[in-house]
Amino acid sequence: MIDETSLTSNRELSNELSAPLLRRVTINQQWADALARNLKKNRMTRAQFATLMGVSEACVYKWLAGGSVTLDSMARAAEVLKVHPSRLVGASAANRSAIDTWHGRAA
Fold first, then answer.
1. Residue 79 domain-assigned?
2. Most confident segment among 8-22, 33-47, 71-85
3. CB 73 within 8 A of CB 83
């Protein structure tokens, strides 16, 4: 016999575990889309960007495919692309102050 309590707790646990994963996937896709837009805007090839970032082209391909990225790499990419870091993660204006503080650009 199936215990309804354990099913409910398993569903709750699954929801708790999947929420951060969904946020991470969303942020990675926003990052990938923003990176592609900014590379095109700056007329920069993936190879040029990889060189300026100090990473391999394979790493850039991974990022463009929605692979995970560190906050430090995002900050460096913002510097290389000459954009505000929030532009690379789709942050709302309300969240920019938190990003500014983390990025050392607090007013």
1. yes
2. 33-47
3. no
Read off the DSSP letter of residue 90.
T
In a domain, residue 67? The reply is: yes
The reply to whether 9 falls in a domain is no
Contacts 24+ apart (CB under 8 A), 37-42: 38/81, 38/83, 38/87, 38/88, 39/81, 42/81, 42/82
Can you tell me the distance from the alpha carbon of 36 to that of 60, in angstroms, rounded to the nearest whole number? 10
Establish if 14 belongs to a structural domain: no
Count: domains in the chain: 1
Number of helical H runs and strand E runs in the chain: 5, 0
Q: Considering the chain, what is the average pLDDT of its residues?
A: 74
Q: Which residue has the tokens 């394979």?
A: 58
Q: Give the model's pLDDT for residue 6.
A: 46
**What Rg value do the Cα atoms of the chain yield, rounded?**
18
Distance CA 46, CA 95 (A): 29
